Amino acid sequence: MQEKRYDFEVAVIGAGPAGLAAAIAARRQGAKKVIIIERDTAPGGILQQCIHAGFGLSYFQKELTGPEYAGRFIKQAKEEGVELLLDSMVLNIEEDGTILCSNPGKGLVYVRAGAVVLAMGCRERTRFNLRIPGTRPAGVYTAGAAQRLINRQNEMVGKKVVILGSGDIGMIMARRMTLEGAKVEAVVEIMDYLAGLTRNKVQCLDDFDIPLLLGHTVTRITGEYRVEGVWIAQVDEHRRPDLSTERFIACDTLLLSVGLLPENELTRAAGIRMSAATNGPMINQYMQTSRADIFACGNVVHVNDLADNVSAESELAGRSAARYVLEGFPKRNREIPCTAGSGIRYVCPQMLSVREEEDADCKEDQGDGRKIEGCGTITGDREEIRLYFRVKAPGAKTTLTAWCGGRVIAERTVRRVNPGEMEHIDIHAEILTGAEDTEITVEAREVG
How many Cα atoms sit within 13 Å of 344 on the Cβ side? Predict the structure, then answer.
């Protein structure tokens, strides 16, 4: 079978909410040849199986289901002339920007791109990742796999269910299983706080009287051919099971909603610098990775709780990739790290790119009518840079502060914080003009 070779200005890997938003933004920024490469047979990603409402509240100011939300982006992508290469698995990204794909109809496909946007999303942790003891019967699913079977393939996965983990998909599936006639015995969470959004606890657990057992975990699974039940126990302050509290819950199905892993095999193979905290690539305020021609967005960078946030971040990645190809970025002399301080688990982006020396080439049209010039200016296409982060523990009224060299450069106070809900703080680029400080630190301090 003959090899196929194509040339594009921007290539996006992944046709989920991140990839679609990035490709549309790249086209609108001026890139004429933009392609999305997707391993599934249709665009939309995980949204196609998320038939519940709750999407688009901030992005479209309208409540949509997952397929409706994806449909709007798919329509926009077609209208903008974005090309799609479906049913194609990306195998490698070469040093010159060539993407090697495998397609069952076309064979090996080579896509050469001036800039690449990584938007592969994430996958669920499985029983293997948790190493739960016990037998290996049928009836153990990740929450996402069960969601796909029920919502897209019309296959019911069980009638008497225990869900391990209070992640958003797990809580949503607790409601979905109940609506399908199953009995959800309990949602079991090892932490002493909720892992997902509070609104999902209210709408999916509280409204259906589904018990939430915080500070508990599944210690073993029983059943020869099919799950017959699970043993659960309370955990101590080190999250180790206290077997004296162990008890048995009869069930035929165990759903796992125990976290997500960004799909970064391609990222690592490309030699891109990774973050140990997020398991994603380290990026700057342009969503640009340590390899200048590769950008990243969405859950491949860090796991988001809202698709609306994914879309906003991904638009920035798409615009930046197009600008990189069409205009080139100004030379970067220095990077200011963004670090997690007291009460913060991680900060993203992990670095801000800065020009230190003013010269004739330092004056740059940023694409929105502004001319930014000179010493120590953070170059970007907006005056505000948004730092996303998660706190380590829940808290009541909390002040979120960004420090640079002993001075406060941004601060906001929120009514409450929870590790399952993303927080952000905006800093003005002008504040860092001429700054000699070496890093920005974000902290969370509970008021009173």
Answer: 26
Amino acid at 150: I
322 and 336 belong to one structural domain: no
Q: For 386-427, write each residue's pLDDT tens digit.
A: 999 999 999 999 999 999 888 899 999 999 999 989 999 999
In the chain, count H helices and then E strands. Answer: 8, 29
Q: Which residues contact 369 (CB under 8 A, 6 or more apart)?
A: none
Amino acid at 277: A
Give per-residue pLDDT as tens, 307-317. 999 999 999 99
Interatomic CA distance for residues 336 and 323, integer angstroms: 22
Provide the token pair at 94. Answer: 């070469």
Whether residues 381 and 409 share a domain: the answer is: yes
Tokens of 305: 């709780």
Q: Hey, what's the torsion of the CAs at 44, 50, 51, 55, to 10 degrees?
A: -80
- H or E, element range at 114: strand 107-118
Are 34 and 23 spatial neighbours (Cβ–Cβ below 8 Å)? yes
Last residue of some domain: 258, 293, 317?
258
Q: How far is CA 243 from CA 72, 211, 233, 236, 294, in A?
A: 50, 21, 6, 10, 49
Structural domains in the chain (count): 3
The neighbour count for residue 230, using CB atoms within 10 Å, is 27
Measured between alpha carbons, how far is 163 from 148 in angstroms, rounded to an integer? 16
Nearest CA-CA partner of 191 in 249, 142, 234, 242: 234
Q: Map residue 44 onto helix, strand or coil.
A: coil
Query: Is the pLDDT score of 289 beyond 70?
Result: yes
d(C-alpha 302, C-alpha 260), whole Å: 10
Domain span at 339? 332-448
User: What does DSSP assign to residue 363?
Assistant: -
Of 329, 360, 375, the one marking the end of a domain is 329
pLDDT in tens, 185-243: 999 999 999 999 999 999 999 999 999 999 999 999 999 999 999 999 999 999 999 99
